[in-house]
Design goal:
eight-stranded mixed beta sheet, 246 residues, alpha+beta
């Protein structure tokens, strides 16, 4: 049995403020709000949108993130509305060398990059978040690893990018974009996986290591440990969470 992709985690100097920005921009709800964690998720209980979690950061952002979100749009007018809304909530426009492209590159109030895409048929049924995009030197290698980690099949693969998505056809894509400088500083965003309640987290950690995960915390997780920190084959850190008991 595989683990499940649970959330995208943002390290933030002001988690509550950044969480509020994303909740208002996406039309999502704040589900958890406590000093050490703020969780934001879509209100549709039947959807498979991956939640966003905001945790206190150890320091200010100093480099481009390896991971970012792409937001969907239904039309060019809707794209403009989304961009204007983001700017009104505290985002700013960003030039990362993208040139003349049909999507708009922005940064959230703490400088985390994201894109508001032009309408694309590929993302017509994803919900507000079209894709979670990871910069990589080897798109297929990371797609295959995260496919094993999340249980999502690899659905497309090209020289430039590869992607996986839930077999249900719901929720965002997880895409891997070939980027020459991908192995720079670690991102302020990372992914969290969660073990299914019926699965042994120690066995799941061993399965992930066999698939190519790199150990960050030594040994095996104690039975009561809330998370084990690992890294994927390109050193992107992620956490393996234990399912809540009961």
């Amino acid at each position: 049995m595989s683990t499940r992709l649970a959330c995208v985690v943002f390290d933030a100097i002001e988690p509550r403020s950044v969480a509020r920005f994303w909740a208002e921009l996406l039309g999502w709800e704040v589900l958890v709000d406590r000093p050490g964690e703020v969780d934001v998720a879509a209100s549709d209980p039947d959807g498979l949108d991956v939640a966003l979690t905001f945790l206190p950061a150890r320091g200010a952002k100093s480099a481009k993130n390896r991971m970012h979100l792409d937001l969907s749009s239904r039309s060019l007018d809707h794209q403009r509305v989304q961009v204007d809304r983001a700017l009104s909530l505290g985002a700013r426009q960003l030039d990362i060398g993208q040139g003349a492209v049909p999507w708009v590159v922005l940064a959230d109030p703490e400088g985390n990059e994201f894109c508001v895409l032009e309408p694309r048929e590929h993302y017509v049924d994803t919900g507000a978040v079209a894709a979670i995009v990871v910069d990589t030197e080897n798109p297929l290698r990371l797609a295959e690893f995260w496919s094993k980690a999340s249980g999502w099949p690899v659905t497309h693969d090209s020289a430039r990018y590869a992607g996986i998505r839930s077999a249900t056809g719901q929720g965002p894509w997880l895409e891997f974009l070939r980027t020459p400088e991908a192995l720079g500083e670690c991102s302020r965003l990372h992914l969290d996986l969660i073990a299914f309640p019926s699965d042994d987290p120690v066995e799941e950690a061993a399965r992930l290591r066999a698939a190519g995960a790199l150990p960050i915390t030594p040994g095996t997780p104690p039975a009561n440990a809330p998370a084990l920190v690992l890294a994927d084959p390109e050193t992107n850190e992620f956490c393996l969470l234990q399912a809540a008991s009961g």
